[in-house]
Automatic annotation (TrEMBL):
The active site is at residue 78. The keyword Cell membrane does not apply. It comes from the Bacteria. It is found in: Cytoplasm. This is Protein-L-isoaspartate O-methyltransferase. It comes from Achromobacter aloeverae. Belongs to the methyltransferase superfamily. L-isoaspartyl/D-aspartyl protein methyltransferase family.
């Protein structure tokens, strides 16, 4: 799949986004189509979620650029193409109803998932981002669709498992076995893997004891870390 094309210029005044965001989201979706995203469920969800509310007001004019943006605590909101690509990969040819997101960040990807999946579970290890995600999801009235947990994402949520799909938004040297174990048979997990050279990896659980692994595109994510940060 070709790498994403450069994003069209967004308005310079963040204050205009309230009026322009629908047009900018539509343009973003057309760009995603051109970049190879074909799942209409994903495209519809991406168009429905106002990405500009998930970033700092000073960066709101760049919200619909195809770029990762800082959200504080040395973390980023992933570029729209990456969000769409990861969700489309775990949803291809199926309709997952129970999904876990590891690394909720500011809540954007969980909000997109909530427009596609019945039950979304999201976990965030940094307290400040957990609070931010909770506020964003409440503002969009998605807090009842997304079960947000403050905790160690590398451990997953064993009490809520198994999951039809797991989306990991940070890169580790290897995918934690705890997450692979929480994937339902036939389910899919997608995660970036590696340190300086990272790639998206798609894993499908083929039986109780077997997983099929496929390497996808080169990407760049923040590191996957254990524990919690207050």
């Amino acid at each position: 799949m070709p790498r994403p094309a450069a994003a069209p210029a967004a308005p310079s005044a963040a204050g205009n986004l309230g009026l322009n965001s629908a047009r900018l989201r539509s343009a973003m979706v057309q760009r995603l189509r051109a970049q190879g995203i074909t799942d209409e469920r994903v495209l519809t969800a991406m168009e429905a979620v106002p990405r500009h509310i998930f970033v700092d007001q000073a960066l709101a004019s760049r919200a619909y650029d195809d770029a990762a943006l800082p959200i504080g605590h040395s973390q980023t909101i992933s570029q729209p193409w990456v969000v769409a690509r990861m969700i489309a990969a775990v949803c291809e040819g199926r309709a997952p109803t129970r999904v876990l997101e590891v690394g909720a960040g500011c809540g954007y990807q969980a909000a997109v998932l909530a427009h596609i999946v019945r039950d979304v579970y999201a976990i965030e290890r940094i307290r400040g981002l957990f609070d931010l995600a909770r506020d964003h999801l409440r503002s969009l009235r998605l807090n009842t669709r997304v079960r947000l947990t403050y905790g160690d994402g590398m451990l997953g949520l064993p009490n809520a498992a198994p999951f039809d799909a797991i989306v990991v938004a940070a890169a580790g040297i290897a995918i934690p076995q705890a997450l692979l174990n929480q994937l339902a048979p036939g389910g899919r997990l997608i995660a970036p893997e590696g340190t300086s050279n990272q790639r998206l990896v798609l894993v499908e659980r083929t039986s109780a004891t077997a997983w099929k692994r496929t390497e996808l595109e080169a990407v760049r994510f923040v590191p996957l870390r254990a524990g919690i940060q207050s």
